[in-house]
TrEMBL record:
The lineage of its organism: Eukaryota, Metazoa, Ecdysozoa, Arthropoda, Hexapoda. PROSITE patterns: CYTOCHROME_P450 (PS00086). InterPro entries: Cyt_P450, Cyt_P450_CS, Cyt_P450_E_grp-I, Cyt_P450_sf, Insect_CytP450_Detox. This is Cytochrome P450. It holds the Pfam family p450. Keywords: Endoplasmic reticulum, Heme, Iron, Membrane, Metal-binding, Microsome, Monooxygenase, Oxidoreductase. It comes from Cryptolaemus montrouzieri.
Length: 497
């Protein structure tokens, strides 16, 4: 009887807590949809029946342009979701000092690598490390990496020639290409994934980036939205076996490089140079953990995000043959005598840039941006006051499909970015973020994707095959954009000379 009374009392207290918590947005006169106890507005996300970006989009699409923001509850934590273009500008740029940090949880004891990546760092430590790492990604440094990438594209061309006339899994091939690119540019090694399907580094990459697996999805969800689970179950953000393998590869390459006094102008060299330039009173110093963390992040972003976007871009070329034809013409016109592309021509091709922008618009790898208020803040236009610690979400996926900004958003239309049109899309084209915390690796990602796309199209036509799924469906269980079948089959055919 006493036990029943205690249980009943706890349930009553929990109910009262829910009622009090769920009145948060009502008391601020902010639109919100009625949440459920425990799960808030995201039960389907928690049970892996819907991606977070689409859950936010469902609410976003119900509201007209007069509503600048709305409230949601992730579990019992209130989040403010920004709709207004002007308010996005305020959060990401104009009033950045109020919102300088991402919501990313850190726990150095559970995952010291995740706690030391640039993405997770906060305040002055982030600012110092960002300033240190920015020179690594200048156009000059990227230009020096291009020859390393071309070694991989030569191998990719061999694979395409060997499979002429065949239907191949473009997603798998794009992953191998990206793993080899990032292994060369980040770890200074020839991973050999394109030629060896059993390459160890590709195997570890698949294990680490298994977005469809429950374990990986649960870890990402917990780190972003329920840190208590991270602390209780000691869940690392990145799977330990594969991450440790890559760290060992990085350390071995770095030590061997120093002992042999070899320069490749890759990430290892650049990080070693930064470490040598440090002074005693630096806020952020590159010890082994922090250097490994940057390399691992570089690998994650390149191997996963780049490969996914490249394969989706190739899919769009297959189902939009006129766009593919126009792009191929531009690529061929910019090839040098050896059939290669220079850094200047790669970034100088207008239509290639339009195609890449549209692919990133239609398929944003990350569906939302996250910030939190470092101090109390008032949106002066509406008078809404949010307290220090309030979490902010910017629903990138919903914005990229808003017909006000992108008419007929389901259509793949590179022309929507031509000329001065891009000026009107500032703050609502967010594929790499915006403001001081915009993705530092944007130039590297674009270079590897553009180079890969050009290599596919300069000599080959890409078309749907018997195994091609049209329209392409995406899994609801993954955190990031992932094809439901895990494959994208397309036919490749050598162009007539």
């Amino acid at each position: 009887m006493i036990l029943l009374i205690l249980v009943a009392a706890l349930l009553v207290l929990f109910y009262i807590h829910c009622i009090k918590t769920f009145k948060y947005w009502e008391q601020k006169n902010v639109y919100f949809e009625k949440p459920l106890p425990i799960f808030g507005n995201f039960l389907n996300v928690a049970i892996r029946q819907e991606q977070m970006g689409f859950a936010l989009k469902n609410i976003y699409d119900k509201l007209d342009d007069t509503v600048p923001y709305f409230g949601v509850f992730i579990f019992h934590t209130p989040h403010l979701v920004i709709k207004s273009k002007e308010f996005i500008k305020q959060v990401l740029i104009r009033d950045f000092n109020y919102f300088p940090n991402r919501n990313q949880y850190t726990n150095e004891k559970v995952d010291p690598l995740a706690a030391n990546v640039l993405f997770s760092l906060k305040n002055e430590v982030w600012k110092t490390s960002r300033n240190k790492l920015t020179p690594v990604f200048t156009s000059g440094k990227m230009k020096m990496m291009l020859p390393l990438m071309k070694e991989v594209t030569d191998q990719l061309e061999d694979i395409l020639n060997a499979n002429n006339g065949q239907e191949i899994d473009i997603r798998d091939l794009s992953q191998k290409y990206s793993v080899d690119i990032i292994s060369s540019c980040a770890f200074g090694i020839n991973a050999g994934s394109l030629k060896n399907p059993k390459a160890e580094i590709k195997k570890m990459s698949d294990q680490m980036l298994d977005e469809k697996g429950f374990k990986r999805s649960f870890a990402i969800f917990s780190w972003f939205f329920c840190p208590l689970l991270v602390d209780i179950f000691r869940i690392p953000f990145v799977e330990k076996e594969s991450s440790q393998f890559l760290i060992n590869v990085y350390k071995h390459s770095s030590e061997e490089r120093k002992s042999r006094n070899v320069k490749r102008h890759d990430l290892i060299d650049l990080l070693n140079e930064l470490k040598e330039e440090e002074v005693e009173n630096d806020i952020f110093k590159f010890d082994d953990v922090r250097m490994s963390a940057q390399a691992l992040t570089f690998f994650n972003a390149g191997a996963n995000g780049t490969s996914t976007l490249l394969s989706l871009c190739l899919y769009e070329m297959a189902v939009n043959p006129e766009i593919q034809k126009t792009l191929r013409t531009e690529i061929v016109q910019n090839l040098d005598a050896d059939g290669s592309l220079s850094y200047e021509s790669l970034f100088g091709m207008e239509y290639l840039d339009l195609v890449m922008k549209e692919a990133l618009r239609k398929y944003p790898f990350i569906h939302f941006l996250a910030r939190y208020a470092e101090k109390d803040y008032i949106f002066e236009e509406t008078g809404l006051k949010i307290e220090k610690g309030t979490k902010i979400l910017i629903p990138m996926l919903a914005i990229h499909y808003d017909e006000k900004y992108y008419p007929n958003p389901n259509k793949f239309d590179p022309e929507r970015f031509r000329g001065d049109k891009m000026k009107n899309l500032q703050y609502v084209y967010l594929s790499f973020g915006e403001g001081p915390r915009k993705c530092i690796g944007e130039r590297f990602a674009l270079m590897s994707m553009k180079l890969g796309l050009a290599m596919f199209l300069k000599n080959f036509e890409i078309s749907p095959g018997t195994k091609t799924e049209i329209p392409l469906r995406f899994t609801k269980a993954a955190t990031f954009i992932t094809p439901e079948k895990g494959t994208i089959f397309l036919k490749i055919q050598k162009c007539n000379s």
